[in-house]
């Protein structure tokens, strides 16, 4: 990655990239399979594509799922007496029908190259309507490393909101107790 950033800088260009955030330990059943505005994957997707320069989001195997048959994409449900129900794979990135399924949540965000170039593009002067070269501004060659921190926090914020909607607690100790009680119910079910 550093070599690509250095090469872009040397060429007076910029590059984008893909950022991935993985969250473990999200309780089962956070989100909604019914209400479009409460689907957890939808809320996270909206948050991620709202980050400046982000143009796409996917979960788990993401767009690769379109190339595979359903038998290779769906995460089989398994059972173990100690851990309860679980999935044998995580192709869908921790979601089932808009809700968390207990597997790690895997979010990938696509960031476009930033537009401030040392190699200016053609543009048009809005006063004269004549062509000219865009101005040169101070520019990073790649903002993806910094954006990874932003995306991680956006995902965490959306998860925190959804968890607090599901578990009505006003103290962290109460919240932990409620989540643990829910986990035990899921195991015993």
UniProtKB/TrEMBL annotation:
Enzyme class: lyase
One GO molecular-function entry: chorismate synthase activity
InterPro entries reported for this sequence: Chorismate_synth, Chorismate_synth_AroC_sf, Chorismate_synthase_CS
Enzyme nomenclature, EC number: 4.2.3.5
Domain of life: Bacteria
Cofactor(s) required for function per UniProt: FMNH2
Assigned protein family: Belongs to the chorismate synthase family.
Name of the protein: chorismate synthase
Classification lineage: Bacteria, Bacillati, Bacillota, Bacilli, Bacillales
Gene coding for it: aroC_1
